[in-house]
Automatic annotation (TrEMBL):
Residue span, Enoyl reductase (ER) domain: 9-306
Source domain of life: Bacteria
Species for this entry: Streptomyces luteolus
SUPFAM superfamilies: GroES-like (SSF50129), NAD(P)-binding Rossmann-fold domains (SSF51735)
InterPro entries, sorted: ADH-like_C, ADH-like_N, ER, GroES-like_sf, NAD(P)-bd_dom_sf, Zn-ADH-like_protein
Protein name: Zinc-binding dehydrogenase
Length: 313
């Protein structure tokens, strides 16, 4: 089968080649992949560390080629969106049925392929904050894949959304169109304290965002794109003067249970046009190096989608 293979002699460490077809376990379905979406962490961390010839990839959308032998999951021919620790960058992938969401017939599978890591991470992070109606939520790294979903989902949940981006003048209109009420360049610039933070940057921004939390507020650390340590100054964790009961939380998406309904819900909303997947780059798999370089160079604000059908184009 065709697959993107780790090859550090190739541009961005990836080349289009062939790999053995996976053999599903009884609780797994075999998926014929139509499209995948890149995530920054895959390109920046997994590709440089993986053995040569490895097939990586978390996100993929496609159609069930072979249903799970144990009877779980969707039937043959069902359009699906899938999440797994590896295997998305290939024509076929074997996926646990509890990590498969169903997709409406006729949906753009490329757009839907952005859902697993970005959409589900945003949704689970917002769940960790708690009820959103009438509350203030701040999102750092708001123009990235997870950030765009977080802004939209928080707004749909009834929150007042503060979006943080390094270029608020240029990106402000886009973020407001997604649902942000306020667009700022740093967490400290937010007009008022917030009840919740979705932090996708880490480092200094996480520390600064924590300072904006009101009493009882929760910061959920999801991304660490800054690559910097979080160093809290003395007094930052004091609980007096309106800072009582503030929380820093983290989670591992693949450690979460019951993800299939989340994937289905998000896919349905993307298919219906209710959520904008933020696809800012799209092409065939032979252009994977180009997409990876754009991600590493921070030239993409949103998601990069690769369509397998266009691999030979």
């Amino acid at each position: 089968m065709r697959a993107l293979l780790v090859d550090r002699s190739a541009p961005a460490g990836l080349r289009l080649g062939t790999a053995p077809e996976p053999e599903p376990a009884p609780h797994q379905a075999l998926i014929r992949v139509a499209a995948t979406s890149f995530n920054y962490g895959e390109i920046s961390h997994l590709v440089p560390e993986a053995p040569e010839g490895t097939v990586l990839g978390w996100d993929a959308a496609g159609v069930v080629e072979r249903a799970a032998a144990d009877g779980s999951g969707p039937a043959v021919g069902t359009p699906v969106v899938t999440l797994a620790p590896a295997g998305a960058w290939a024509e076929l992938r074997a996926v646990d049925t509890d990590l498969i969401g169903t997709v409406p017939e006729g949906a753009d599978l490329g757009a839907v392929s952005t859902v697993p890591v970005a959409g589900a991470s945003a949704l689970r992070a917002l769940h960790r904050i708690g009820p959103l109606l009438g509350r203030r939520v701040l999102v750092t790294g708001a123009t990235g894949g997870v950030g765009r979903y977080a802004v939209q989902l928080a707004r749909r949940g009834g929150a007042y959304v503060v979006a943080v981006t390094g270029d608020p003048e240029t990106r402000g209109d886009t973020l407001r169109a997604l649902g942000a009420h306020e667009v700022v360049g740093t967490p400290a610039a937010a007009s008022e304290p917030v009840h919740g933070v979705i932090d996708l940057v880490g480092g200094k921004q996480l520390v600064e965002a924590y300072e904006k939390l009101s009493e009882g507020g929760t910061l959920v650390a999801v991304g660490h794109s800054a690559g910097e340590p979080e160093q809290f100054p003395y007094g930052a964790l004091f609980g007096n003067e309106g800072r009582h009961d503030r929380t820093v939380a983290s989670f591992y998406l693949l450690g979460c249970t019951n993800l299939a309904p989340d994937l289905s819900l998000l896919a349905q909303q993307v298919a219906a046009g209710e959520l904008d997947p933020g696809v800012s780059w799209r092409g065939g798999w032979q252009r994977a190096g180009e997409a990876a370089d754009a991600l590493l160079g921070r030239r993409l604000h949103g998601k990069a989608v690769l369509d397998l059908d266009a691999a030979a184009a």
